[in-house]
Design brief:
- The protein folds into 2 domains: 18-94 and 168-247, Rossmann fold (3-Layer(aba) Sandwich); 106-167, no CATH class.
- The strands form 2 sheets. A 6-stranded mixed sheet has the order 6-7-8-3-9-10, with helices on both faces. A 4-stranded antiparallel sheet has the order 2-1-4-5, covered by helices on one side.
- The chain is of the alpha/beta class.
- The protein is globular, with a radius of gyration of 17 Å.
- It has 10 helices and 10 strands.
Length: 250
């Protein structure tokens, strides 16, 4: 099933076929195998989180989806097999990846960053810029400021807003909480929740910060040493003692 609808600002959620389906994926750096047969689904319109400690394979999982690391297995995105497709083609199909450590142009202004984010589109960008400025009012106040001079939380917001400018069907977020103060993280995740609920953006978030990630997620997976060891609805995982011991920091 391919999506032939006229895209709204973002593709809205509906049940049925998952937006992303990862099945039996192995990934390696040279001789070193890092992912071992991982499988998971991201349903349309939902937020899925993959939890794991440092070095568990979270970043590699997102890199595998974008074909930025050598891997085997099947990955379908919106009904199309994308394993081994060029990264640029995958991005053009509507997948936006916000790498760990953000991914904005520090020497450009907030506004320039947003315009570059929408460069693949030919229509007017102004209404989208207005829309994301509404969701991220602090970016609007700082629209002419250089991205590199924003605070960590603001840079993360800019990275998300910039990714949204391409009107993605799926947003991949690599540890958005990294290096941010607890209150800022709370704010950011609140915005992610609004984004999902109001705009229906499908999201796959990888995180070490399990508490907040499970607050906004529908479903969670736990990755350890390159294998998915546990999964369940977010509220079930939140009360799972093994997850609590490992990731919810007593
Ligand atoms: N470019 C690379 N070359 C070799 N090994 C790597 C590379 N990147 C990551 N690794 C290894 O792969 C494993 C998983 O890393 P990563 O996916 O970055 O974990 P996480 O994002 O969960 O912290 C780690 O053991 C890490 O050392
Ligand atoms: Mg990582």
């Amino acid at each position: 099933m391919t999506d032939a609808k006229t895209p709204p600002a973002t593709t809205n959620g509906s049940s049925g076929e998952p937006m992303l389906s990862v099945s039996g994926v192995d990934a390696r750096y040279g001789q070193i195998q890092v992912l071992r047969g991982i499988s998971f689904d991201v349903p349309k319109g939902e937020v899925v989180v993959i939890l794991g400690a440092n070095g568990a394979g979270k970043t590699t999982t997102l890199r595998a989806i974008c074909n930025m690391v050598s891997c085997d297995g099947s990955i379908t995105f919106d009904g199309t097999e994308i394993a081994k497709k060029d990264t640029a083609d995958i991005v053009n199909m509507g997948l936006a990846h916000i790498p760990q450590g953000r991914g904005t142009f520090p020497e450009l202004s907030v506004l320039d960053n947003l315009e570059i984010g929408g460069y693949v589109r030919k229509d007017s960008l102004d209404s989208d810029i207005d829309r994301w400025f509404q969701m991220f009012p602090r970016l609007k106040e700082r629209k002419d400021q250089l991205a590199g001079s924003l605070s960590g939380g603001e840079q993360q917001m800019l990275a998300v807003a910039r990714a949204l400018m391409s009107r993605p069907k799926l947003l991949l977020l690599d540890e958005p909480s990294l290096g941010l103060a607890p209150l800022i993280i709370e704010d950011l995740f609140q915005t992610f929740r609004e984004l999902n609920q109001e705009s229906g953006v499908t999201m796959l978030v990888v995180e070490q910060n399990a508490n907040l990630a499970l607050e906004i997620a529908n479903h969670g997976y736990v990755i350890e040493a390159g294998e998915i060891v546990l999964d369940g609805p977010a509220d079930v995982l939140k009360s799972d003692t093994a997850v609590q011991d490992a990731y919810l920091g007593a």
